[in-house]
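pasting for the record
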Amino acid sequence: MTENLALFEEATFTEFELATAEQIAMSLGRKVPNKGDMVMACEKSREWNQQRRELGLTDWV
C-alpha cells in the first residue's frame, strides 16, 4: 500500500484528469480535489477512453 501511495504522489496527470477531479470535488462540495477524487478521475478517464476505442475513436487524452 505504501508503495502504491508513493507512486501516486509522483504521478503526473493530464489536463482532462485534473478537470474531471475538480468537477468531482465540486459536486461533493469541495473546492480542491483530494486523492480519492484524482483516483476516481483517472478511472473515469480510462473507462471513457476504452469506450472510445471500442467505437473506433481515438483517446480523449
